[in-house]
Model the fold of this input.
Amino acid sequence: MKLKQFKIGGVHPKENKLSSAQATIALPQDATVTIHLGQHLGAPATPIVKKGDAVKVGTKIAEPSGFISANIHSSVSGTVDKIDDVVDASGYKRKAVLIKVDGDEWEENIDRTGDLSKTITLSKEEIIERVKECGIVGLGGATFPTHVKLMVPAGKTAETIVVNAVECEPYLTSDHRVMLEKTHEIMIGCQIVMKATSAPKTIIGIEANKPDAIKLMSSIAKEYSGIEIAPLKVQYPQGGEKQLLNAILGKDVPPGKLPIELGAVVINVGTVAAIYEAVQKNKPLFERVITVTGKDISKPSNFLVRVGTSISSIIEAAGGIPESTGKIINGGPMMGKSLTTPNAAATKGTSGILLMTESDAIRKEEQNCIRCGKCITACAMGLEPHLLSKMARIGKHEELEKEFIMDCIECGSCSYICPSSRPLLDYIRVGKAETGKLIRERNK
Done:
């Protein structure tokens, strides 16, 4: 079997998929949940509930405050305790709705039966509206509002839906489990997306380190028209949107453009499953699968977690924080970010929680650049990370734009491969933020 791969750069970190064989377990609810209003790309949602209001599982509690924004729903039933600024996973205080849990009563219009619903009755416009109403966002990490992605711009044509089932981040296995446990739902979800975008086919890209998922998905895909599976070489960051399109379609997205320029719409596999639940079951996005893992954690696991659950509760269900823990990471080791507190709440974008050992978490002392060029070789975007990092350090933001810093996907391959332990990505992120400000000011 010939495996597809992207053509430029990449690294091969240890996979450490410690929880891949662990079936998803539904996690018990906390006594109080903290549901942040800014858990999607774009403007935070605006609350439509107040202290003392009774809510059910699936009750809408906040509405979009802009075009790029998303509805937010209660993940529990109970009473709104307060709306307050609460520290989130980034360490900053953000507006959130706190709900005291009382029972587990769901909104009546949510279909809770386990029956598979294959017939798609909604029109393309109704599908997009339902996805919007249910607050579906990208579950691969970017949390981009999905209804916006399904709205193909005028003058463009969606020719291929590319489903990102790569999960190339080390340690994380939530997408892997969704593929094994929600296979038919994913296939129907693909057909829903094809109907919404008028795309005639779907290609699902899966890395070769998930042979059970490739085998099962390939077998089930035969029952559904227009869907095929593309096995991919294990190569980080294979799951990057532009890298995935290069591997599957053999084409490159032009700088500053979106996949629709290639006639493609890219959607994470977990998001596709959520689309099925929204369209066929009228179920809003208020829970997701989260991997809790680490070399010394006693029970690496995959949990079905209600949004707003404390990360400390999720860790406790996996055996608690080992004494050897040096860092708790929200996400994977390559693109994830350290938590300032384990008491932060899980959001729609929480794909995994990694408890990194102290020995792995210690940064080696930064050394001088030895001009080896490894960061250039590893960059999957064909950039010069050493140069971008240096320019960012000294504040040359206008020059950074000319060096295409905004094309950086922040995969961390440059920092990973650097023999001098230089924090290349750290400075590039700062440079991107400042350069982005310049661009936005200019475009006003």
